[in-house]
Amino acid sequence: MKIVSADTLYQLQSVQHFLGRLVDDLADRRSIIVLLPNRINPIEFMDALQAELWRRDFELEKISLANLSNSQNSTLVTKLSSELGIKWPYADTPRTIMNLMEVRNLPEVVLIEGIEQLSYEECRKWSSFIVRWAEHCQHRTNQGLPITAICLVAPAVAMLDHVPENKIYLEVHWWWGFPSSLEMRFLCRLTISTDGWDTMTQWREYVVPALVGNDISLASDFMELDILGDIQTISSHLQTVAEQREWKIENLRTWGLKEDFSFPDTGYSLAPPRYLRMLWAHGVLGWTLEYGLELHAAVLAVLGKKEELSHRLWRGQAELVLPIVDRTRLEICRHFTSLYGSDWPVREYKPESFQEEKSVRENPLACQLGHLAFLLKNASFISSEERCTSVISFCRWIRNKIAHSSPITFRDFEGFLQEVEKIQ
């Protein structure tokens, strides 16, 4: 089950914002280079960008560098003009960028894909070509002449050694920081039919985004696989994913992974840090607004970092479970208040904390789990509330596990909800 189609992915707000930045640059006739990590399909991305450009009525042509002539005697201008179907005014016109820009009826935008199929040297040449194209565009703009923007979309692995610096008429864009964890949860929600909501679905919706970061493919795996197992089961599947992607330890080290893989909080940015770009390009590292800079969960499994994996499970569970625990506490407090009056938290026994005593005298709904459990065990006036005793006991146990950064199992969560249902 694929949790999201390409169409849905490119409708997410963060991705739409990214596409909007690209189109705005192209509208200003700035050439752009768009770099994607391995997990993003460049063909699907190009289709989404092209659709956005058509929607805004751009005149454009799309070419694939893989289809161009490999003749060593052909210049890049010759190859490009041939693919665009340019008719030169004279056969002996020098095939230069300047002369190509003088040709009438050039499109507003030229979309270029397929650079990852070229050699290292050819990639370098095309990068240099786009830089020179942007420089000529600046000169023509100063003269009030029309210009055409180039948009190159490429897997970052093919281009990292050839990434130019930004210029007035050239901008490099990076697929970085999206989808967010919140958007990943939204994508998980989209897979659920109205009549298909159950405890497992609810569990997955929180735990999967916390575990996978913004890897949509891995989220699809965990939305259809049984993730009831312990951390060993999850780690085993992640190691299989790492093998499929050739994330061996020796490769990770070659790409720049250090023994100490803790990363500083980089905050929001439009590009991955320079020293981590190779890891990002291979999909090994990512950033989300919610969790910051992180290694992929499958890499943690390869490195045997089970504590780190447990932490990722825990953070999703905490976001799911703690509100239910507190909601259950409030329901019982309201129930007791309606039956026994507002002084029930202090009628026979006071909380150990002076601050809590003060709070519950002002508002009985402020009574915390510890004092609730004590009253259910010792206070005579609520001795008949046996059904609440087991629920509060379970709430305390779950809350304490989460409070000590210890993940629970799905069976724990399922049992907890069954207890909660008894008082509803």
Describe the structure.
- By secondary structure, the chain is an alpha/beta fold.
- The protein has 3 domains: 6-174, Rossmann fold, CATH 3.40.50; 182-304, no CATH class; 310-421, no CATH class.
- Helices cover 52% and strands 8% of the residues.
- It has 19 helices and 7 strands.
- It has helices at residues 6-9, 13-27, 42-55, 76-83, 97-102, 120-142, 156-159, 181-190, 199-212, 216-224, 231-244, 249-254, 277-281, 297-302, 306-340, 354-362, 369-378, 386-403, 410-421, and strands spanning 31-36, 60-64, 109-113, 149-155, 170-174, 285-288, 292-295.
- The protein has a 5-stranded parallel sheet. A two-stranded antiparallel ribbon has the order 6-7.
- The longest helix has 35 residues, at 306-340.
- It is elongated, with a radius of gyration of 29 Å.
- The mean pLDDT is 90.
Provide tags for this entry.
424 residues, alpha/beta, Rossmann fold, 5-stranded parallel β-sheet, two-stranded antiparallel ribbon, 7 strands, elongated
Summarize the structure.
This protein has helices at 6-9, 13-27, 42-55, 76-83, 97-102, 120-142, 156-159, 181-190, 199-212, 216-224, 231-244, 249-254, 277-281, 297-302, 306-340, 354-362, 369-378, 386-403, 410-421, and strands at 31-36, 60-64, 109-113, 149-155, 170-174, 285-288, 292-295. By secondary structure, the protein is of the alpha/beta class. It has three domains: 6-174, Rossmann fold (3-Layer(aba) Sandwich), CATH 3.40.50; 182-304, no CATH class; 310-421, no CATH class.
